[in-house]
Amino acid sequence: MSHPVRDDRQSTHTPGALIAFAWTLVGVPLAYGLYNTVKAASQLFGG
Amino acid sequence: MAVPSFLARERIVARPGFNRWLIPPAALAVHLCIGQAYATSVYKTALVEHFDTSLTAIGIIFSIAIVMLGVSAALFGTWVDRNGPRAAMFTSAVFWVTGFLVGGLGIETGQLWLLYLGYGVLGGIGLGIGYISPVSTLIKWFPDRPGLATGMAIMGFGGGALIASPLSRQLMNYYDPAYDGTAGTVPNGEAVAALFFTLAAVYLVFMMFGAFIVRVPANDWRPAGFDPASVKKKALVTTESVSANNAIKTPQFWLLWTVLFCNVTAGIGILEQAAPMIQDFFRNGETSTVAAATAAGFVGLLSLFNMGGRFVWSSTSDYIGRKPIYMVYLGVGIVLYVVLATLGSTATWIFVLTAAIIISFYGGGFATIPAYLRDLFGTYQVGAIHGRLLTAWSAAGVAGPLIINGVLDTQGTPGQLVAANYRPALFIMVGLLAIGFIANLLVRPVASKWYEPQATTPATARANPERSAAR
């Protein structure tokens, strides 16, 4: 099967908003997980 | 095997000016989802009760998934390298999500074999393809910092468990209000099935997002200010290319297989037993001075060090080199295991600190290995080589629990064990780390007879992936 090949000589610009959105999308769940784990781990020192 | 055109590698070659910092979140979108594999313990007891079976029968589901991870990563690694990360992430998402759907159906209808087939086999294939899918792409986008790049992605695998554990508890509480997430309450089977269906939907969206935004660099792309000749100046780093079929014929591949196997087996020794282990180390007669809630906190702390070690140590390896960092993982690991075995029961802080650093080395070992492979074999088929090396993980996933559980079975009854009962197992881990240390010490640059001919460009090599296989 042949695929159309993109012309990689044309310049592009990655919008900063897309990068920020992508990092937020993975960062928010990660922060949620970190918060809950730190909360659980704090029992080690508080208990 | 051809892929639909919208998934083809040729469709996702980035044009000049593309910002490479869009690639790590694409990789994380996949690894944060498949990292759920480390959070299966949250519904283990519920499944035992629902199917009215043994813990072993439920534990096998995870074992099948890890074995399938290694097998699929090894079998499909070359396919992943040839077809690119979008096809791989898409395929991984399909398998991973289907695994949850079939598994959920198995729980709903009370058929355990469907759970084995779904989460174990199909999910395991998704795990294997998903785990290696962004690795070679990241290495190519970050030739100046490969350890940082792979550390970020593989950190996501550790992070996936941190997300899935509390999220699963909250969702199961939503589907079964009688379950409140505390010890003593167990969610019903319907709640676990509903959890599976919900996770399937969430993971589908996230993983497809990753597949949608991922790009591969053009063959002649370089980061600004990066001189490829500079990597050649570092010991053990090659600018040559070695195919996956040839890599497995080299002693370097098997030395690194041994290194990964020993490092993972030793780490699993602690991870497997973390909660009961800390209670047993500080047992006084029938009771332990460490409460169950504190033990749960210890497990949480280990998860943090497991994840943090992946990023911190792998990034550090960009500066001090791959071989030296494994000498730290394995050499300092030996010392720490001896400290744990001999002084671990004298003070809680010694036990906790020692175990936490050991687990950070465990995570670091996972995250640094792709960059080590890239140093030795080049970027040409590093994804496929990484996939084949992950069979060491599968083997360690079987060997680690066998060693620790096997030794503890001969030492006494769970709930009555003390620190001394763990010593034989811990000293076996010391021996394993010593073997890994020697294997790492023996790593030398790959012989030039295994290099691909200079005329072979990455593009032509991709078009003829089997060309070098017969050499």
Question: What do these coordinates show?
Answer:
The complex is a heterodimer of chains A (47) and B (471). In chain A, 66% of the residues lie in helices and 0% in strands. Chain A is mainly α. The radius of gyration of chain A is 21 Å and the shape is rod-shaped. With 471 residues, chain B is mostly helical. Chain B has 2 domains: 5-11 and 19-218, MFS general substrate transporter like domains (Growth Hormone, Chain: A, Up-down Bundle); 232-454, MFS general substrate transporter like domains (Growth Hormone, Chain: A, Up-down Bundle). Chain B contains 17 helices and 2 strands. Chain B has helices spanning 23-34, 44-51, 55-109, 112-132, 135-141, 146-175, 189-213, 228-232, 244-247, 251-281, 292-320, 322-343, 348-377, 382-389, 391-411, 419-441, 458-463, and strands at residues 283-284, 287-288. Chain B has a two-stranded antiparallel ribbon with strand order 1-2. In chain B, β1 and β2 form a beta hairpin. Chain B is globular. The two termini of chain B are 23 Å apart. Residues 459-471 of chain B have low confidence and may be disordered. The A-B interface holds A 1, 3-14, 18-19, 22-23, 25-26, 29-30, 32-34, 36-45, 47 and B 2, 5, 8, 10-11, 13-19, 21-22, 25-26, 28-29, 32, 156, 159, 161-167, 206, 209, 213, 218, 291, 293-294, 296-301, 303-304, 352.
Key words describing this protein structure:
heterodimer; A: 47 residues; mainly alpha; disordered N terminus; B: 471 residues; Growth Hormone, Chain: A; 2 domains; two-stranded antiparallel sheet; 17 helices; 2 strands; globular; disordered C terminus
